[in-house]
Fold:
Amino acid sequence: MNSYYITGIILSRENIGEKDRLVVFLTKERGKLKAVARSSRRISSKMAGSLEPFNLVRCWIHIGRTFDIIKGVEIIRTFPNIIKDIDLYLYTSRIVEFTQSIVQENEETLDVFKLLLGTLSAINDYGNINSIGIFFWLNILTLAGYKMRLDRCVCGGEKIVGFSPSMGGVICSNCMMKTTDVMLLSNPALTLLREYATIRLSEAIKREIPKDLLAEVENIIANFRIYHTNIRLKSEEVTI
Ligand SMILES: [Zn+2]
Structure:
């Protein structure tokens, strides 16, 4: 068989040659996948409009020598509210950029596919980006093998005073001296992290997080993520 079908979310596109585009998908069937859309930069191309970032599409793909070639595209779902709101768009771009970096090619990752699709749908339909974002980051890190330790300190201590990315999560006062990357952790932030590690997306959609608490939790997650994955997002190259 020299062709196959995929269902995938469009993560990114880059121009190659005069008229073609290389499209990166997160697929339901094959994890991350790259394929070429021939002549898709022509205005008259039927494919051009379908292969927009974040779209969920079904594609018919031919096996090629260097890259596989997209022969047909059918849109399953678009996310118009994300596309027309700059804040939602930028936040979603970070989520998608990270997903593209953490997932390997041709490695089946159905859980990540479901998480990303659920997150895109939630952002589009509810817009509650802060709460949905915290949910996404904790879950994608867990799926990637970097689960935050939130129940007790690495020594077993339960009186939590801080957080250490290098020690994998929360730490007690006795262990604070054992590491140099201690971040203070307030009780509300600890409670919030513990809740978000277990709640469902349908609950995260409804929650509101106070600004100060959000900043504290986002900072902890970002430091943990960068320490363990070594992935810096384009938007973080200057700010963190
Ligand atoms: Zn300890």
